[in-house]
Design brief:
Blueprint lengths: L1 E3 L5 E3 L6 E7 L6 H13 L5 E7 L6 H9 L5 E6 L5 H11 L4 E4 L11 H9 L4 E7 L5 H18 L11 E4 H10 L6 H8 L4 E6 L12 H15 L2 H31 L4 H39 L6 E8 L2 E5 L1
Parallel strand pairs: 3-4, 3-6, 4-5, 7-9
Antiparallel strand pairs: 1-2, 5-10, 6-8, 7-8, 10-11
Helix pairs in contact: 5-8, 6-7, 9-10
């Protein structure tokens, strides 16, 4: 069966492949061996045709070499080697573009969400759920990160009008129909769980286990998390711009009332001792207004930046090489 990929090339949906697991990897040399040890028994015990697609997202360590070594001994495995580091979500998009299964599972390579949860996700998909989201229970992250994540999740849901309990958990399941819609959207900045939620007809969220990261380092620091959430909020809502407009209207109203009050006191009561207080209050308010102005310019800049990226029409990722097994044997395609 042929469908169309995002780049216009035909995608082969293999009849024998029911499940595609898409795993982005960036500098994960320390965790890959343990990932293979846990993942392959789970997949082989499913009793379904499957493929595992690893996307090397411009790694600078031995990640690509390890992936290639495992690829040579596992016919179910494919490796997409990207030309640079395009980020987690763009790497997953590359996997979506080449996945051939009817059900697609995304999984991080850091093993914080164990592969043993994959059968639970597939069970929910078998029951008719086109998007199976997950939320982490017993999170092994620092307290500050858990509190910040909870606050950001609530704020994002309110602004973007979504119902996602845990934006940071990438262990999720998607029906082929959802993946085809996401591939067709062609957005240069895409937050996959939120975009899938917009198109889902019968989504569900289930709890999954969470483990402390034992090997390697997290690729999401505080700055990266802030950037990701700015992208998310500006991708799915105009509320930040509307808040800027309302803040401007509120400040204008307060300034007008303050001016009217000062004029009335001078006209009817004289200057009095309140004049000095009002002058000091006005001077202090200038700092508040300056801060709000800079924040507003930043929000507007975020939207302008998104417009710039969209009209530039640059590819979301570039592929250096694809390693996949064919009927004739192993094949690496440029």
């Amino acid at each position: 069966m042929l469908t169309q990929r995002a780049d216009g090339e035909p995608r082969v949906t293999a009849a024998g492949i029911e499940v595609s697991v898409v795993i982005p990897a960036y500098n994960e040399e320390e965790s890959l061996h343990k990932l293979f040890e846990e993942l392959w028994p789970v997949m082989e015990n499913l009793g379904r045709g499957f493929e595992v697609i690893f996307i090397n997202d411009g790694s600078r360590d031995a990640t690509m070499g390890i992936l290639y070594d495992f690829y040579k001994i596992h016919p179910e495995m494919r490796v997409i080697d990207l030309g640079a580091n395009f980020g987690q979500h763009m790497a997953i998009m590359a996997g979506f573009d080449h996945a051939r299964g009817g059900k697609i599972i995304t999984l991080d390579a850091d093993l914080q969400n164990p592969p043993s949860e994959i059968p639970n996700i597939l069970k929910q998909m078998d029951e008719g759920h086109d998007v199976v989201g997950t939320y982490r229970v017993g999170r092994r992250d620092p307290l500050f990160r858990k509190i910040a994540s909870k606050c950001i999740n609530k704020l994002t849901n309110r602004i973007a009008k979504l119902k996602i309990r845990d934006y940071g958990c990438m262990l999720r399941g998607y029906d082929r129909r959802i993946i085809d819609i996401i591939n067709h959207s062609q957005e240069t900045t895409t937050f996959i769980p939120a975009l899938a939620q917009k198109f889902a007809v019968n989504p569900i969220e289930i709890p999954v286990a969470h483990r402390e990261r034992e090997l390697g380092e997290s690729k999401y620091g505080l700055f990266q998390l802030i950037r990701l959430n700015f992208d998310l909020m500006t991708s799915f809502s105009l509320v930040p711009l509307q808040l800027v407009t309302m803040a401007g209207m509120l400040l204008s109203m307060i300034s007008f009332l303050l001016l009217f009050y000062m004029f009335a006191r001078r006209l009817f009561l004289g200057i009095g001792t309140w004049q000095l207080f009002l002058e000091q209050a006005f001077e202090a308010s200038e700092f508040v207004i300056s801060g709000i102005t800079l924040f507003s310019l930043g929000i507007i800049g975020e939207y302008i930046g998104r417009i710039y990226r969209e009209v530039s029409k640059r590819p979301r990722y570039s592929i250096r090489k694809i390693f996949e097994h064919t009927a004739e044997g192993s094949d690496g395609q440029a």
